[in-house]
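@channel sequence for tomorrow's demo:
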Amino acid sequence: MIEFLIGTSLSAAAGLNAWVPLLVLGLANRFVSFVELPAAWSWLSSDVALWAIGILLVLEIIADKVPALDSLNDIVQTAIRPAAGGIVFGAGSTAQTLNVSDPSAFFSNNAWVPIASGVVIALLVHALKAAARPVLNVASAGLAAPVLSTAEDGVSVVASVLALVAPVLAFLAIVAAIWGAIAFVRRRRRRLRERDAAASAARAQPL
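C-alpha cells (generated this afternoon):
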C-alpha cells in the first residue's frame, strides 16, 4: 500500500512538472542515505541525467509562466509528463526507503504495472492542468499564468519530497490540490458564462 502511495504521488507530481520528481528521486538516491533506487533506475542519479533533468527543468519553469507559450508547452508535454510519470512510479514504488523496507513483490515482479499506472496518473493530472490553464488565462487576461505555474511547481516539489518521507501526507496533498483545482475551474467557468450571458442580454436591449 505504501509503495502505491509513493508511486501515485510521484507520478501525479510529474503530471504538473515532468522534471521535478525525476530530479528529486535522482538527488535523493545520490545524497540521501535512506533512499536507494533499484539498479534498473539508478541512472537517474548519474551526473549526465541530473544535469540534463536540471536544464530541462529550468526551460520548463520559464516556458510554463508565459501566456500562450504555456499552452504550447502543455501540448509538447503531453508525451513527456506521462512518460516521466511512468518512470517515477516505477522507480519510486520499488525503491528501498524508510517507508518501504521491503517493496511490493507484485510491483517488483511485474515491472510494467507501476510504469503503466504512472503513465495513466500523470496523463490525467496533465490533462486537468492543460484544460484549466487556457480558461484561467482568458479569465485573468494572462496575468494568472506565472502565479498558477509557480503554485503547480510548488505542489510538485512538495509532493515529490513528501512521497519519499511521508507518502500518506503526499497522497492527501495531491488529492486536495486536484479537488481544489477542479472546484476553482468550475467556478471560473460559471462566472465566465454568467458574464457572457449578462453581456449578451445588455446588447439585446433596445437603445
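heads up for whoever presents: The chain has a mean pLDDT of 81.
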